[in-house]
Design goal:
The complex is a heterodimer.
Chain A: E1 8-10, H1 15-25, E2 29-32, H2 38-43, E3 51-54, E4 64-67, E5 70-74, H3 79-84, H4 92-99, H5 104-107, H6 112-116, H7 129-135, H8 164-170, E6 174-179, E7 182-187, E8 207-214, E9 219-225, E10 236-245, E11 248-257, E12 264-265, H9 267-273, H10 280-293, H11 304-323
Parallel strand pairs in A: 1-3, 2-3
Antiparallel strand pairs in A: 4-5, 5-8, 6-7, 6-8, 9-10, 10-11, 11-12
Chain B: H1 17-22, E1 37-43, E2 49-55, H2 57-61, E3 65-70, E4 94-95, E5 101-107, H3 110-117, E6 121-126, H4 133-138, E7 147-156, E8 165-173, E9 185-191, E10 194-199, H5 204-214, E11 222-225, H6 241-253, E12 257-260, H7 263-269, E13 276-284, E14 290-300, H8 308-317, E15 327-335, H9 351-368, H10 372-378, H11 398-409, H12 411-414, E16 422-432, E17 447-453, E18 459-463, H13 472-484, E19 491-495, H14 512-534, H15 540-551, E20 554-560, E21 580-591, E22 598-608, H16 615-634, E23 664-670, H17 692-704, E24 707-708, H18 715-726, E25 732-733, E26 747-749
Classes of the chains: A alpha+beta, B alpha/beta.
Amino acid sequence: MLRLPKIRLVSPRSLVAAARLLVEAGPEGAALAGGTDLVPKLKRRQLRPRTLVDLSRVEGFSGVERRGGRVVIGAGTPIEELLESPVLARLGALREAAACVATPQIRTSATVGGNLALDTRCSFYDQSGSWREAQGFCLKTDQEAPCRAAVGSERCFAVASGDLAPALIALGAQVRLVGPVGEREAALAEIYQDTGRRSLRLKPGELIAAVELDLDPRLSTYRKLRRRGSFDFAALGVAVSLQMKGGEVSACRIVLGALASSPIIADEAATIMTGGKPTLERVAEAARAAVRRARPVDNADFPAAYRRRMAGIFVARALRDLTGLRGKP
Amino acid sequence: MARRFKYIGRSPRKIDALAKATGRAKYTDDLSLPGMLHGRLLRSPHAHAEILAVDIARAGKLAGVRAVITGDDLPVRYGIIPVSQDESALAIGRVRYVGEPVAAVAADDEETAQEALGLIDVSYRPLPACLGIEEAAKEPPGPDSRLHKAISYEFGERPSQASALERTDLFFYEGNTHLALEEHAALAVWKGGKLTLRCSSQTPFHLRQIVAKVFAMPQESVRVIVPSLGGGFGGKLDPFSHDICAAELARRTRRPVKFALTREEVFYCHRGRHPSLMRIRSAWAQDGRILDLDFEACLDGGAYGSFGTVCTYYHGALQPTTYRLPHYSFRAARFSTNKPPCGPKRGHGIPQPRCALEVHIDKAAEQLGVNPVDLRLKNLATPDSITVNMLRLGSSGLRECVETVAKASDFRRRHGRLPHGRGLGFALGSYLSGAGVPIYWNEGPHSRIRIEATADGALTLYSGATDIGQGSDTVVVTVAAEVLGIAPERIRLVAADTELTPLDLGSYSSRVTYMAGNAAKQAAENLKAQMYRLAPRRPFEAALRAALKKTKSIEAWGSYTPPKKFGAFKGSGVGVSPAYSFSACVASVSCDCETGLVRVEKIHFAHDIGRALNRACVLGQIEGGIHMGLGEALSEEQVFHPSGLHRKPSLLDYKVPGLFEMPELDIHLVESGDPGGPFGAKEVGQGPLIPVVPAVANAIYDAVGVRIDATPFTPEKVLEALDAKARGGSGRIGPSRFPEVPFPEPIRVRDA
């Protein structure tokens, strides 16, 4: 194995200091949280930063805390802790998404913030430096180079394959962001944009500090398509949340992960489900509407057409399970 | 059991278990020597190209770089088998696959060596690349022909009886790789004209021979030592560029040089399963007897020969060890393509044809209206018989294996009758307990073992066999301990060091337990005889003390030479073995018809082991074989982009099954007691993988009525087949054409 190259490591005590260090380091810097995605990339020389800003010493960065009817999750919280927290016990989508991130060993190191800020992935990008050189570099890192996954494409189709983002968006999460000169809040969905090169809409140096969400009695679930029951990144993620009132769906959110460079909010599908009693016909219609939003390309495991088709199956199954419907329309 | 054993048949802890579990065991990459340099290889970015020039000047000037070498510095061609001396340590004039080593650097540290690779300027002229069997078979005979080896045989006589059923099937078996946990590594030191090479090799004695050839020096001046080795599965049998470059760079710099490959580089070393396109034709009598079997195969060999010739022969060798075939013909061709070389992976060339055959028989059983288990039993080869291709079958517990899994799974009652989406599949398999004919022909023993008792009372066993994780160190020590009647811990072991230990051909062809085990048994018996001659009628320790007072030391040798082969035609040496193992497998699967996802719920497995020497090790090998078989069946594939680049050269992207994919296992050992094996033992390292893949294929058909005639059986393929079936098609996914191949005139062997 190739060991890590020599890299400067700085360990600030606050997020503001971390943000400033990242601005100082510029494109040669990278933030290090759990390291489970970054370190393998460093080892295979996919990335070559000179400075790592280590977030493990930042105070108050980790933990799950209940505040009234809301819960605040520090971005530095290891993902495995989400599974142990009684506060989150009823947030089905979040727990299910957390439970299928990588492996238990990786989850004890990998953090919530790291998963939300996960770099987009592509089978032509997530390779060693020498592999990419042999293939020819691509749009993900070189403006002048062609896209290798969708030949002729003007844009990069690298995939947002984190599991937590679709689940948290379906649950209506907000994030607190800390930058070099202050902090702000935003809906989680708003920090993503559907561009593979850079899918996070964050200002230079800006870091996710915490995630906040309501502990309302919503039903929710998360489904993940992957080759194996462990390890693998999502080839498709489906998060659904539902609010039922008097046997009718009063609110619904459907979010598709790993089909584009950001989570896809399938609002048309959600609208079909909202208002009125859930029926198998409406579920089927919503699933079809969700599939229409999915335009994956062949740059992850499974053929794109298969992933797209499974989006419909997974949405329908998630809706049927949450509403207790049985059978096929 | 005829007699009670003290250690044999039980599950004492492996002698290296504690060191490995606690991290004390030292693998090659853990070793470091004073002044040691680090080596890295520059690899080709082209699948096929002419090398116009290699300029190492810039790299050589980088601070910390101690030497840079290219193909011209190591001109001697070599290869693991005598007929395929087609490799060089670094490419000379031409590169033939992406990842082929072109230059090597030794530097003060790994990072500097890595940086230096970027300063080596190579100019290439790209050439058309050939990446598959169909393409390769299109090249007409001549200088551009891709045909590496073609063979053709015909055995026995076709009975005059009319056939009730004739059918033809095509099957494609995708390539896949070994994925041993330890990445390859080598550490070379020269001292006074003598080379010491510590490396992750399954064949230290072959490597010694090849290194001596490359450096034109006597074999005794090369010492190969294998430290702890983290898995081989056939992937560490060949001599590799890093072994030879480590030696050359150490020679030039007069300092130790270590190479430790990355996982990606291991994918380029490969030597794994050949992709194979196969066609089977069979004829059956009304009563279910096979009248005729015709088998053809095209193997995708990758860029170099490796063990490919042997693999090509193996494609046709073992079909007759399980079924009585009155007439059997087989043709196989291996093609060169621009991909990492294929070679021997667990099961060598046997899993592909066995899979195609077992699926073919399943289809025939349905047409004949016979239960697949009963159809096989009707045609089972007879123990202690001579097969149509002149193999001497010895002990066989195959019938018991078949009946055991059929009963355990209630196969006869449940097959074909489970609810839609659930199914059972049956298959069997067979393997050699060591090749009867060595790859480097010699008249000498295949394994030798020496046990020495010294004046201080120490007992040391010297074994040339290489423990690749399978437990061969434990086996040789346990066998000797059983004979001597002492605890295994009493025996000190020196193993896998070409200077200190007697010759052993290596850890391949499932030969070590049978051959080194027999040698250990004989050495221990010999020691005992010598000791009791000097000091009769005493317990062991007292006898040893008394004997050593008289003679200071006792040296005892044991060796094993397999019986001579039976056939006398060209190629008759392939498939010959002193004993064959047999396995039978029932896979129970569920299939999700909306997603195509296949889940293997349970595996019933029976293996004729002859006798289990260490029960836990035997079960471990069977579990490991099933795991590897499931990977080949469901998810693993060594596949390439049109550019020739490997699509998934990482542990994340190459989909080896994990814990969640492992089904419930129901394993039965059949102990038929082989008369020639040590305490009756036969092989278990490779055989158990073989029937798993076709059992899963047949189970998928039983579950949802589609035939996936191409591995791996992925959800996307199953769904495609289900779609086709729903549209009124056959529901079969698989190859539809077999290329025109200029096979030679068959060698006819009539006289069985």
